[in-house]
Amino acid sequence: MWGTQEKTQYTNGHPYTCLRSKCHVVGQPEKSSPNTSGFDAATYNLRTAEGWGSDMPMARKHVMYITESPDNTPEAMRRTAANVKFDYTMTYRWDSDIPVQAAHVVHKATPNMEALTHDWSQGRLLVAYWFVSNCQTSSGRETIAKEIDGLDMFGACSGRKGCSYVQKKKKPEKYAQCMRDIAAKYRFYLSFENSRCDKYITEKFWRPLWKGNVPVVLGGLKRADYEEIAPPGSFIHVDDFKTTKHLSEYLQYLTTNDTAYNEYHHSTFLTLVVFTMALGPFARILAQVALVAGSAIGRAFVQAFQEAAQKGATQAATRTLRRQMPLEEAYKILGFDATAQNAVTRQEIAEHYKKLYDMNGPTGAAAGSPYLQQRIENAQKVIIQHIESQKGSKS
Predict the structure, then answer these.
(1) Taken in order 74, 41, 360, 13, is the CA torsion positive or negative?
(2) Which of 46, 133, 153, 168 fits a disulfide with 66 by CB distance 3.0 to 4.6 angstroms?
(3) What is the DSSP letter of 223?
(4) CB neighbour class for 141 (10 Å; exposed up to 12, middle 13-18, buried from 19)
(5) Would you say 380 and 334 are in contact if contact means Cβ atoms under 8 Å apart?
(6) Which of 303, 382, 371, 367 is nearest to 336 (CA)?
(7) How far is CA 79 from the centre of its chain?
(8) Alpha-carbon distance 190 to 205, whole Å?
(9) Which residue numbers delimit the Fucosyltransferase C-terminal domain (predicted)?
(10) Sign of the dihedral through C-alpha 284, 286, 291, 296
């Protein structure tokens, strides 16, 4: 990882240990770095583009990493992205080569009958809350928020801290409990993104679902962007209302009508939100690279995942590791050792990649989306290129 601002930034705060010295997380690109001429891939954090120099890694493959929207991408970042040749993209978009997914929806094998009768309104007497620190955004979210009655704001834009940032760093468990205590008082959370760009939906949407709040969303370009990835009927979109006043009145109505409010939680009957931010993207990078380069690093990565799970990592990390374990199956499915003798057909690639996508990506409506087809086509292209390179090396 080249240009990582914090070595734990891309693992949800969990320390990232390199695999038998086969990977390097570089925090300051202008300082000394390992000899990278033989590396299979280097991932570039585009947010540090201005610090890049002539000592950039000379890896076989280059991956561009950025989770910000185009609206929040400074000119230096855009210029670098346009001038540097990247082999793969690693962004918030589902049609990226390597999507950085904050979470995804899993359909339960056994329906949770209690979800249909549970009173999700119990103890939630207040309307809505919002943690926000960026007070001027291109989405105009701050203007909309001012017109919502019963909204409690926390963070730099309100003067109310809510939960101490120092506590977040030094006593994370106490901070997490503070956040849960606040969430338990409210029915809704404003999941307002700072930009309205195509498919731009961040962890702001997923976290309230996990805490039992109904997210009121502003993001993406349209409602359909959320329908692609969200549990059905689990959110309220600002665009559903002609005016903010109508939205505010509807939230007030749901705060006094427990039956109507509980309907927004019925999706938990069949679905489960799983957070996959921690180590998933790294796994996908190495899966792609191992496929193209014929490298042993992919195999080593899967083995390291197994060891971490067996040793018992932190709860959140372990949960993610287990969700990503199908990569071992994907390793077999996609055939990293594919040659002219055992080349798979395009149809087989499509079927197997869909299976991989279903295990690691969104389900339901998203499974039939055009972005799934795009991911399949990406996989086809990569595998066919590898097969062709194998043919060339044998001729």
Answers:
(1) negative
(2) 46
(3) H
(4) buried
(5) no
(6) 382
(7) 25
(8) 9
(9) 127-266
(10) negative
Cβ contact 346:302 at 8 Å? no
Task: Determine the distance from the C-alpha atom of residue 376 to the mean position of all C-alpha atoms in its chain, rounded to a whole number.
Answer: 19
CATH topology of domain 105-271: Rossmann fold (3.40.50)
Q: For 230-252, how does the pLDDT look when each residue is reduced to its tens digit (9 = 90+)? A: 888 899 999 999 999 999 999 99
Could you identify the residue written with the tokens 């502003």? 218
Locus of tokens 């040793």: 311
Tell me: the pLDDT tens digits for 146-188?
999 999 999 888 877 778 665 677 787 788 888 999 999 999 9
For residue 267, what are its two tokens?
A: 């999706």
Express each pLDDT in 283-342 by its tens digit. Answer: 455 444 444 433 343 444 444 444 443 444 333 333 333 333 333 333 343 333 333 233
- What DSSP designation does 30 have? T
CA distance to 70, 174, 251, per residue, from 180 (Å): 32, 10, 21
Gyration radius (Cα) of the chain, Å: 22
**Which H helix or E strand runs over 172?**
helix 172-183
What stretch of H or E contains 68? Answer: none
Q: Tell me which residue has tokens 């300051």.
A: 28
Q: Where are the domains of the chain?
A: 9-101+276-394, 105-271
Bridge partners for 65 per DSSP: 45, 90
CB burial string 281-304: b at 16+ within 10 A, e below: bbbbbbbbbbbbbbbebbebbbeb
